[in-house]
Amino acid sequence: MKAIRIIALAQVSFLGFLAVSGIITINFGRFLEIFSDVIGWIADSLESIFSSILELGLFGAGFAGGFIGTTVLLERLNDDS
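^ that's the sequence the OP posted. Answer follows.
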């Protein structure tokens, strides 16, 4: 993990040197746009996951309630016989 950090730091330093020297141009606006797109995608994914959990949770609770209710009702009917 430490090697990856060192390599990443070396790459950023090299690209920074090239940008300061005028050899390459870094479009920071595009970086910001990509970053905001990624953040938006993550937020949309979390919202979708949260709504799915709520829907499945409600369905599961209804299913469990029906199963338990039916089991208890059948048990009472069998005890009465």
